[in-house]
Amino acid sequence: MELNWLKGFTRQWQDRLASGRPPHAVMLSGPRGMGKRAAAAWLVETRTGKAGEGSMPEFPVAIPEHPDVYWIARQEDRQSILIDQIRGLVSDLALTSFEGRGKTAVIEPADSMNHAAANSLLKTLEEPAGDALIVLVVDRMGRLPATIVSRCQRIEFSAPAEAEALDWLSRHKPAQDWLPSLRAAGGAPLEALRLADRVDFLASLGADLDGIGRRRLSPVEVAQRWAKDDVFEILEWLARQVSEAAKHRLAGPARARGHTIDKTVLERMDTRNLFCYLDIINRLRSRPAGSFNAQTALEGLLIDWAGGLRRLQTKPAGLDAMYRAG
Fold first, then answer.
1. Number of H helices and number of E strands within the chain?
2. What pTM, to 2 d.p., does this model score?
3. What homologous superfamily does CATH list for 4-156?
């Protein structure tokens, strides 16, 4: 099924090819669920000549198979892309193209490369062999070294209009109310598909956050429950809620359709510290799994939420040990 909201991306890429100045390294960045992997697969098909005229990125994504194509992802039992994978890729890119069209490598998610793997890719990004194209799919920009980012041409993916996204979701699976999951996904259609079965869970998170904001629930007890689930999914949800809350306070409800925090709770919060609070959440999201105590981190975040963010300085209470360790 075509991802029609990526028409602008395909047109932009075709214009670059027509100009005779295509990049040798491109970074597809933006929140999860916008179609970046489908776009990467379409780039590969375009490079290998398999994409027909007027073709579009499609979902579900089929990883292209071709002797000139290398698709690098985390190994099944690993949380990171490892240096041996990148070293192997660098060696393969130095070989002669099988069909003479140049080699194409996709690394996804590139932000899961460990430090050694990222360093081993640097020289190749600067001087790729032959007519190679390296595509980095990035979900969390904060996890990538600046040296990697500076060597790529960045293409940012953003959410389509809500009506367009709902139309696509309804065609993908009719007779379902997609609005709650789409808004929970921050407008990302493919993320809305993933969250369709998690709407009730996310609603329970919202009820917890409101209960803490009204001082009816203990932040420590809620953090203990949250820490038993997917902490990074919760942090992603929390970051989205705080971002929407900031838009709601500064630009009005029309600009924050994904906002679910109760108005009376939001009025208790110190608006000046919402962006600082969001930055702290995103710094946590950028850390590798297992590098901090999840319950301690969540306790700190929720204790400051209970306090209306009024005492927030550079980090929430309870995270001192994590920051010393990191």
1. 15, 5
2. 0.87
3. P-loop containing nucleotide triphosphate hydrolases (3.40.50.300)
